[in-house]
Amino acid sequence: MEQITEFLAMGGHGAYIWSAYGITTIVLLAVLVVSIRHMRGQEYLLQQLRAARRGGASHQNELDE
Amino acid sequence: MHKYANPNQFLRIANPLLPWLSGLTVLCMGMGLYLGLFASPKDYQQGETVRIMYIHVPSAWMAMFVYGSMAMAGATALIWRHPLGHMIAKASAPVGASFTMICLLTGSLWGKPMWGTWWVWDARLTSVLILFFLYIGYIALVNAFDDSARGQRTASVLVLVGAVNLPIIKFSVDWWNTLHQPASVVRMDGPAVHPSMLWPLLIMSIGFTMFYFVVLILRLRSELAATKIRNIRLGQAGE
Q1: Which residues of chain B are within 8 Å of residue A20 when distances are taken between CB atoms?
Q2: Average pLDDT of span B22-49
Q3: What distances in angstroms separate CA A38 from CA B120, B215, B223, one per listed residue?
Q4: Size of the A and B interface in Cβ pairs below 8 Å
Q5: ipTM confidence score
Q6: In terms of residue numbers, what domain contains B143?
Q7: Higher pLDDT residue, B7 or B141?
Q8: Which residue in B3, B35, B106, B194 is a FRET match for A30, CA 20 to 30 A apart?
Q9: pLDDT band at residue A60 under the 50/70/90 scheme
Q10: How many domains, chain B?
Q11: Residue B55 and residue A13: Cβ atoms within 8 Å?
Q12: Is residue B86 included in any domain, yes or no?
């Protein structure tokens, strides 16, 4: 227990060190989550649009890829 | 070479790499955290606060590396008119801006206990702040045009002009009298950091680099899907 508190205290500078690591974790995770969600949203929308196009058979082969 | 400039081709190669790159990211960051927080010694001058170095320095390197990548991607896109270069630049910008923000904030948290101040307007800190504004400017500019191709071209020109800031950041600690310490890893006479501190630093840097590649691939996929969506909608509007 004492070892843990000593580790967390970081020689009295714990607040600075843990804030630095905390901010880094939050920022990197936020970038990752936002990127994944955006990608899924766009790829889903693209699928929907393509399915809709296949449904309306009058105009098929103009634009794919 | 030109074959791979096609975003579809590029992603066909990059996509299978995604799980490997993700695994490497987790592995390197985990090892970096363990070595940085537990296994490495405290500094004889700075005490435990030296542990901030293991995220501050890699994020500073990434801030410059990502910007350099954007400048190169933007330049090739402007010269050869390949869409992939602009897409890489646009997909990289938020990652680079985030690393720059991490660098500034962790630097501040390191400066307060060691220098007694959160911020000074010395050449190193100011030039990194300018780098952050260049990222923000790029992101604003690339999204500011209705014609996305024009936005990408204009923003890539901004990145190229701003690239002059990179050597200024690197050499600011030599050219001016800064509160920030001079380079201790990338030096002509080799690193002046003990291996017990150099290893966590390098491993964390590899982890950060892999993280950049992972997010870059994810964002390139978004960009490519967005382009196709736009084309489909333009096609529909034209009928």
Answers
A1: 52, 55-56, 105-106, 109-110
A2: 91
A3: 37, 11, 10
A4: 96
A5: 0.90
A6: 72-179
A7: B141
A8: B35
A9: very low
A10: 1
A11: no
A12: yes
